[in-house]
Write a structure and sequence with these properties.
Blueprint lengths: L9 E4 L5 E4 L6 E3 L2 H9 L6 E4 L11 H4 L2 E2 L1 E2 L3 E2 L1 H7 L3 E5 L5 H10 L3 E5 L4 H15 L2 H22 L9 E6 H6 L3 E2 L5 H8 L3 E2 H5 L7 E2 L1 H7 L3 E7 L3 H10 L7 H4 L3 E6 L13 H12 L9 H13 L10 E3 L2 E5 L5 E5 L5 E3 L3 H6 L6 E4 L7 H6 L17 H6 L4 E4 L4 H9 L4 E3 L5 H14 L3 H22 L9 E5 L5 E3 L4 H8 L3 E2 L10 E3 L2 H7 L3 E4 L7 H5 L8 H4 L3 E3 L10 H12 L9 H13 L3 H5 L2
Parallel strand pairs: 3-4, 3-8, 4-5, 8-9, 10-12, 10-14, 14-15, 19-20, 19-21, 21-22, 23-25, 23-27, 27-28
Antiparallel strand pairs: 1-2, 6-7, 11-13, 15-16, 16-17, 17-18, 24-26
Helix pairs in contact: 5-6, 6-13, 13-14, 19-20, 20-25
Length: 634
């Protein structure tokens, strides 16, 4: 006679076919694989994780609170049973069926701790795993939403693939990048989840046809040459992508292949560093979209895999890692997305840059040696002049507003970075065959997008991540101190630009800086979709701001406002709360410093212990190599 589970009991069958009964949704989990940890986070159960494997700690798609949990070993090198026992988990979640996984599971089960064994061979397996984990942590509704996100995209891929005629299908081989670096035999993907992804999107996986019963068969180069695939896909970590492609570029034997001659060798960025798109777990569907797009760009032209990645990370992971952090890597080029959402193909390794807008940030990325041309305004910029005195020797073909196209062409840049204020100038540059990176910023998140895209362009993702972390640290410090200020007690702020009656509307970076500092942009209500707007003084008197801030570069100062009787009735003037902002750059991570400075001016009592100059000096020293005091003087 079979005993029925009680109403509160959870009964699931794992991928080993083992039935596991839990008395209630679990509260304490040890997870031994990063992609299952990602699912737990996506289900809102990251706080239930109490122990992790050594590899989970390096997953950039997991919050630091998860990566900081106790490390108990791994399914590859074994686990510390005593540590697991000490954590008192309700359940352990692990891969099964390979390496030392089954032995590790047996050890854990022998001490009376339940283990859920999972293994992904197909997207259906992934959906099943999400459903199981949703039940285990009591998050079935979230599990359903995540499954639907994946299922809809997978069905779309299959529907498009079904329309590709057999005689039009590309012949593809997927090769492990590490085997290329190592030399000797090549490890190829056959009867595995990733190997079958090629067939899912409508191509022919030659290795799967030749070795239908094997997962990762090894072949010699002569076999690869005899197959002579139309396209070669290479799996690689983000950190080793260039190394893999450099091996191919240097080795002439690869050059006889059709895929090399037609420049159809691509890297699929894998695993858990930022930029990695293909991994088991929720990001697997993004990796399949990536593969579909590089194999059949016209057939899958409606797919925006980067946007899907950003949506997945924002909606389910609670992370803002934007589409600009992700690129397509080809043997000859990489494709990035700029700040206008344009896809731009640039050299795989960028060595020569003309920068007409983000030159201060290039200092922070430590890539000024790649600068061959710069905006004329850079030569007057006090930060650039102080941190990079050699700027006087860099040619200037003009600016984003007025450009000498002939001089630009003579500099032979790999890319031009520009503010697309004048589309005609952008068109002229592109007509020369020079890739253009367009920068347009309206928010703090846009600044983060810029940092990510520069990180991708210069292969400095880790530096971009650290820049953003430092920026977030300061902004979060401000947010924590102002969080309890009621809306009706927040200070009303007016920001003035090049003349006293040109104000900041409700659109643009400075508007958001005011909000993040705890202020209310008093002009935003009447000018919600405007950036810089000329208004009448009567409008300013009507708004009656409590604090007025003047643009650093304005040719007038605080006295201009305080001594003008026409402004005398305004509260900010009466209370002498009119300030000229200190030096900072509006379009880079300096924004964090302005937010801190402004918050101090708005709410001095909450920031009395904060020494702005000390923080700014530390920030500038780290990122620009000079102190803030050196830049501004004093």
């Amino acid at each position: 006679m079979t005993t029925k589970p009680t109403e509160k009991e959870i009964v699931i069958t794992d991928f080993r076919g083992k039935t596991i009964t839990l008395k209630k949704p679990v509260e304490r989990i040890v997870v031994l694989t990063s992609y299952w940890a990602e699912i737990l986070v996506a289900l809102g159960a990251g706080d239930k994780i109490v122990g992790i494997s050594s590899y989970v700690a390096y997953d950039d798609y997991l919050p630091q609170s998860v990566k900081d949990k106790v490390v108990v070993g791994s399914i590859f090198k074994g686990v510390n049973i005593e540590q697991i026992v000490a954590l008192n988990p309700d359940v352990v979640i692990s891969d099964c069926g390979y390496s030392k996984a089954d032995k590790v599971i047996e050890q854990i089960e022998n001490i009376g701790i339940s283990v859920i064994g999972l293994f992904m061979k197909t997207i259906d397996d992934e959906l099943k795993a999400i459903e199981i984990l949703g039940k285990v942590v009591g998050a079935e509704e979230k599990a359903s939403a995540l499954k639907e996100f994946i299922r809809l995209r997978y069905q779309y891929l299959l529907s498009k693939a079904s329309m590709i005629p057999e005689n039009k299908k590309l012949k593809v081989v997927m090769i492990s990048g590490s085997s290329i670096i190592k030399g000797g035999q090549l490890s190829v993907y056959a009867n595995t989840s990733w190997g079958r992804s090629i067939e899912d999107v409508g191509a022919i996986n030659i290795a799967l046809k030749e070795f239908p019963g094997e997962k990762w068969p090894k072949i010699d180069f002569e076999t690869l040459a005899s197959w002579d695939p139309d396209v070669i896909l290479i799996t690689s970590s983000v950190s080793k992508m260039h190394k893999v492609l450099d091996v191919i570029e240097r080795d002439a034997k690869w050059h006889i292949l059709k895929a090399y001659k037609e420049s159809r060798i691509y890297v699929i960025p894998c695993w858990s560093s930022v930029g990695g798109v293909l991994d088991w777990g929720p990001r697997d569907i993004i990796g399949r979209e990536y593969i579909a797009k590089v194999l059949y760009p016209e057939i899958y032209k409606d797919i925006d895999w980067r946007n899907d990645m950003e949506t997945l990370l924002t909606k389910f992971y609670g992370l803002f890692i934007p589409k600009q952090a992700f690129a397509v890597y080809n043997i000859k080029w990489k494709e990035i997305v700029d700040l206008t959402d344009s896809e731009v193909k640039i050299p795989r390794k960028v060595e020569r840059v003309v920068d007409l807008i983000t030159y201060e940030t290039l200092i922070a990325f430590n890539v000024m040696d790649k600068l061959v041309g710069v905006s004329k305004y850079a030569k007057k910029n006090i930060l650039v002049k102080t941190a990079y005195p050699n700027i006087t020797n860099i040619p200037s073909p003009g600016s984003s507003f007025s450009l000498n196209i002939e001089q630009l062409a003579s500099l032979s840049p790999d890319i031009v970075i520009i503010w697309p204020y004048k589309p005609k100038i952008v068109d002229q540059i592109e007509a020369l065959g020079i890739p253009v990176i367009k920068v347009s910023l309206y928010s703090c998140n846009d600044i983060k997008r810029l940092l990510w895209v520069l990180g991708v362009i210069f292969d400095e993702r880790d530096r971009a991540k650290e820049l953003i972390n430092d920026m977030d640290y300061i902004v979060n410090l401000v947010q924590e101190r102002i969080k309890d200020i009621p809306e009706d007690k927040r200070v009303k702020v007016l920001y003035l630009w090049s003349k006293p009656t040109k104000v900041q509307g409700g659109r643009g970076t400075v508007h958001e800086f005011i909000v993040l500092a705890g202020g209310i942009n008093i002009a935003a209500k009447d000018l919600p979709n405007k950036t810089y707007v000329n208004v009448d003084l009567e409008d300013i008197i009507k708004w009656n701001p409590e604090v007025i801030v003047i643009w650093y570069h304005a040719k007038y100062d605080v006295k201009t406002i305080l001594k003008d009787p026409a402004w005398a009735t305004i509260n900010a003037v009466k209370e002498k709360r009119v300030y000229k902002e200190p030096y900072y750059e509006h379009w880079n991570m300096d924004a964090a410093l302005f937010i801190l400075w402004l918050a101090q001016k708005l709410y001095p009592d909450k920031f009395r212990d904060i020494d702005f100059t000390s923080i700014a000096n530390e920030y500038y020293t780290k990122w620009y190599g000079v102190t803030y005091t050196q830049v501004v003087g004093g």
